[in-house]
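Posted in: Structural Biology > Protein-Ligand Complexes

Title: Requesting predicted complex, thiamine diphosphate in pocket

I'd be grateful if someone could produce the 3D structure tokens for the following input. Sequence and ligand are given below.
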Amino acid sequence: MMTAEAQTHYPTTDGPKPKERFYTLLVIVDNEIGMMSRISGLLSARGYNIQTVTAAEVNHAKHLSRISIVTKATPDVIDQIVAQLEKLIPVHFVRNLTDEGNAVERELAVIKLRYNETYKEKIDAIAAGYNTRILEQFEDVIIMEISAATARVEEFISSVPKRAIIDLSRSGVVATTRDGKAIVKIED
Amino acid sequence: MPSNAIKKQMTEKKEMLTGAQIVLRALQDQGVDSLFGYPGGAVLPIYDELFKQESVRHILVRHEQGAAHAAEGYARSSGKVGVVLVTSGPGATNTVTGLMDALMDSIPLVCITGQVPSHLIGSDAFQEADTTGITRSCTKHNFLVKDAKDLAETIHKAFHIARSGRPGPVVVDIPKDIQFADAAYVSPEDVKVKTYNPVLKGDENKIEAAIDLIASAKKPVFYTGGGIINAGPQASKLLRAFVKKTGAPITQTLMGLGAYPADDAQFLGMLGMHGTYEANMAMHDCDVMIAIGSRFDDRVTGNLKKFSPNSKKIHVDIDPSSINKTVSVDVGIVADATSALEDFIKVWDEKNVSADQPDLSDWWDQISKWRDVKSLSYEKHDTIIKPQFAIERLYEKTKNLGKDVFVTTEVGQHQMWAAQHFHFNNPNRWMTSGGLGTMGYGLPAAIGAQIANPGGFVVDIAGEASILMNIQEMSTAIQYRLPVKVFIINNQWMGMVRQWQELIHGERYSQSYTEALPDFVKLAEAYGGLGLRAENVSQLDGVIDQMIAYDGPVIADICVDAKENCFPMIPSGAAHCDMILGTQSNRPEVTKEGLKMV
Ligand SMILES: Cc1ncc(C[n+]2csc(CCOP(=O)(O)OP(=O)(O)O)c2C)c(N)n1
Ligand SMILES: [Mg+2]
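-- Reply #1 --
Done. Output follows.
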């Protein structure tokens, strides 16, 4: 028999806290006015803990957008988030890639660095160990991109000397599944 | 981009109408006979079209909040979609409370709002408000119509979304230029909402699992809610049949009252914060809980950690997000209540469960002990009118009227006393603001119910504080000769606030006494209605009789015991099994956590 504690999703102060982890969700949605505000409004109104949200139209003919959301939640709360998102009328479906267990995830970071005598060598050495690309280089500035799983991106950023970083921009996570299937058709 | 339906229409018929004409045509095709509204600059073209036709009746309210609640009363008492028509800016913002109320209580509404012309949107134009932005979180869905070609389709979609699945309010915001523009009309049959197809039929395996659980239960209880009402009268019939088959007790939420007859022996009364002792104890002690169309609201569950600790739980709901939201269940079934109940009965009969079901007589013995507590009892008085007594008399005097009786309420103690002491034996007869708890709901809702049921007897059981929040709607009742009755349980206090201050805040009555109340009798007369007053027990029956006999709007000012408290009560943060009863002299222990609850 379940204990009373185990039955509630939002235990107040006492009782064991259910384990939180990161989940990657894909939301396929009609790209109509106010769509992003519907999604972000829902997530904030219900107090969900959102790490990244990225969105872009992937089927121009049908105006379908694909939104990738990374959120920290317990298993119960993630089910609730999925159910709430699916309740939105323009949402076609939601996929929980983390639960499905076959997510391929990438994040892009564009980083502007001081590339002078102090840092040059260090940066070169670190960048060689990651999947980085030089976008621009002028005077003693270098702009690089890195595309990798979020953890790798984090690792790269934290290994670059702090004082070398002038500017940092990150895309948030985009994802697909490690199989031969489409999440959503991109043509017709 | 025009949809295929529109393209087809344009090539086949090319029937061009103005946007305003499209609105009226769409309403007619949706079977709308009445709507509730208030005109203004941004909807004048639609009002012009209303003027030219007779099939859609416009009820002119006195405040747009009133229009929204009236549409709710209309919807809940008729099973149809309630329709609201208001202007841009303040007209739209005034509907917000009503929209939120409808969202919380799952009431189907379509609210058409005028908007400034398209080219002025975003310029802070006169009476511009970001209506779709403002109403995004208080509607099931909303639309801003950007092209007249999409207008007909959008309105039909709005009706479909409002009434299907878990019903709710939908806003259609129509800029004024779109109301003048010409476009082709599209019929409802040609419109589909691709991404919205609620599941109606429950999963077979889960239905079986549910029946197996119920079949083995020694202490089952049904806990049903507003979802049964929303599913339509057939769901109530099936619920009755199924509850009878199982022989189990049933309790209903505030929103569910009437779906199962209050006078039936298996009914335990309402559950929750002011529910009966037997209902809450049965919930706490049951071994199998059968929740249908109810959502484990905090007013119902009390302290979640102590909620029904030893039961297996079955939950049927049309809204997948309601299942496992606050309480984990063992069998969650996404389905319409009618369909699920049909399936339950079918499987129950197929398996011939009744033949070898456990004996429930110990459970019923226990329940009758709880019933003996008589948790709804109160001390009667020879002269002072007790509020519960006033409602009992109202019930006694209206139950054999030979008319359908519809009760609406405001919010507060009177609302809970009405739920406890007025017996509802049929669905769609009881309209109250459950989820949002909106003072000012009752009078406009009564007007809506009376419009939908011209032959019915409609009474708003009100508090003297709440009624003042939408009292202007008396003027609407007079204009349309709607014989609605306002039965004010006048305790001169915001009684429910006063009760919490007495019990939880050391009897410090901060701002809960209304120093200057109007003379409600004169107020009724000022509007053109009948005003009555009962100051003591000997006058009560006479006033109720006069109120019933008068063929027009009445305000009956029932002066009741000012300090009566509403019991039983689960203090906030406490469990079902920790109720305070009216007969107890002790005060509730409210925990620190409980204090923070509302
Ligand atoms: C619009 C709104 N404002 C405030 C409240 C908080 N509130 C709940 S009950 C209540 C008092 C209601 O007083 P009255 O209408 O006289 O009813 P009584 O409790 O005395 O029966 C108040 C202020 C509310 N529910 N709705
Ligand atoms: Mg009062």
